[in-house]
């Protein structure tokens, strides 16, 4: 288990120097953010990013994410050229020594919350998802602009893309995912890259859009699309646990048994009424996830990949990118490493 931390590049208020001072920190999870989705990441740009991280005394553990163009998810004819580009990016990353790539297959919206700065009684702020509020959100006609919503879409473009997905139900989306997987995985395998699909967050349909990487059945179905360790998952326990129907520990155990866990996101959430939830501090006592059991499984299955604290709260007056402040994620990292040390030593006697 290798402790890692997400870094958003030079514009991130959290610096590499901050990150390297976090006890037990080994690696960086990052991406190139200014290459348009669908274009190839050049060797030069990857080298630049790598040098930046290495000059700070760290290394790149995982690329998160190489985004998948909507035309691939929609199964449009342009997808073949876009998949060629995606494969070239995988090859370029591999040539620079990067061996794990996280991505997701969520239509239009990435992770979605209804409030980015919910205030807990202790004064800390967290991201939350309120089911009732989410039902009132309408990406086409509504005035609300929310996180994870791609602000590069104009209103007309948003309507066009939402209309395009009206033709794509869950089965169609699975077909498009299968097409993508069958093309990229043999290439990733050939260059020693492990792909890690992130679950949909939250793991159910929102705004009428199909969502398919949602629970145990999805994991079972996904791994069968292509039988290879390179065709793996990001075990984001916070995302899987956000559907009260999911048993996140059962999903974790199954994914480890299948040997398809290529990356772990450890975040805790507190389930509330219905499908509402609040992100919480990492320790088990604050959320619905038994984080000790998650870390114990990483040890039991001798997980060699990267783990990172996922979103954190904003504490101690910190301002910055919601979910991605320094302090609470640093506490999360040391907590997770502490659990791991205890499990490891307990198993040694
Ligand atoms: Mn995650």
TrEMBL record:
Catalysed transformations (reactions): D-mannonate = 2-dehydro-3-deoxy-D-gluconate + H2O
Enzyme Commission number: 4.2.1.8
Superkingdom of origin organism: Bacteria
Enzyme's top EC category: lyase
Pathways per UniProt: Carbohydrate metabolism; pentose and glucuronate interconversion
Gene3D superfamilies: Divalent-metal-dependent TIM barrel enzymes (3.20.20.150)
InterPro entries: Man_deHydtase, Xyl_isomerase-like_sf
Entry-linked Pfam families: UxuA (PF03786)
UniProt keyword terms in alphabetical order: Iron, Lyase, Manganese
Keyword Iron: yes
Cofactor annotation: Fe(2+); Mn(2+)
GO molecular-function term, one example from the UniProt record: mannonate dehydratase activity
Family: Belongs to the mannonate dehydratase family.
Physiological role: Catalyzes the dehydration of D-mannonate.
Protein name: Mannonate dehydratase
Biological source species: Streptococcus didelphis
Lineage of source species: Bacteria, Bacillati, Bacillota, Bacilli, Lactobacillales
């Amino acid at each position: 288990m290798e402790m890692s931390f997400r870094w958003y590049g030079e514009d991130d208020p959290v610096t590499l120097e901050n990150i390297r001072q976090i006890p037990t920190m080994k690696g960086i999870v990052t991406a190139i953010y200014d290459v348009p989705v669908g274009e190839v990441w050049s060797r030069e740009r990857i080298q630049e990013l790598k040098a930046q991280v290495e000059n700070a005394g760290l290394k790149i553990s995982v690329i998160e994410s190489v985004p998948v163009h909507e035309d691939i998810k929609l199964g449009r004819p342009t997808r073949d050229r876009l998949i060629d580009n995606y494969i070239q990016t995988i090859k370029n990353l591999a040539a620079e020594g990067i061996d794990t790539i996280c991505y997701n297959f969520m239509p239009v919206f990435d992770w979605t919350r209804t409030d980015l700065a919910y205030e807990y009684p202790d004064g800390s702020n967290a991201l939350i998802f309120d089911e009732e509020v989410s039902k009132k959100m309408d990406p086409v006609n509504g005035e609300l602009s929310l996180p994870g919503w791609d602000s590069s879409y104009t209103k007309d473009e948003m309507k066009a893309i939402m209309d395009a997905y009206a033709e794509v139900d869950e089965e169609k989306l699975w077909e498009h995912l299968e097409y993508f997987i069958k093309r990229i995985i043999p290439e990733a395998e050939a260059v020693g890259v492990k792909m890690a699909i992130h679950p949909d967050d939250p793991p159910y349909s929102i705004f009428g859009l199909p969502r398919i990487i949602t629970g145990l059945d999805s994991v079972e179905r996904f791994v069968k699309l292509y039988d290879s360790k390179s065709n793996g998952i990001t075990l984001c326990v916070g995302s899987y646990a956000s559907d009260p129907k999911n048993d996140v520990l059962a999903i974790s155990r199954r994914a480890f048994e299948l040997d398809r866990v290529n990356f772990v996101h450890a975040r805790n959430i507190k389930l509330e009424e219905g499908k509402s939830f609040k992100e919480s501090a990492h320790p088990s006592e604050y959320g619905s996830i038994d984080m000790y059991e998650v870390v114990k499984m990483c040890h039991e299955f001798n997980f060699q990949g990267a783990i990172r604290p996922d979103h954190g709260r904003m504490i101690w007056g910190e301002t910055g990118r919601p979910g991605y402040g320094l302090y609470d994620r640093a506490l999360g990292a040391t907590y997770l490493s502490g659990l791991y040390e205890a499990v490891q030593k307990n198993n040694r006697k």
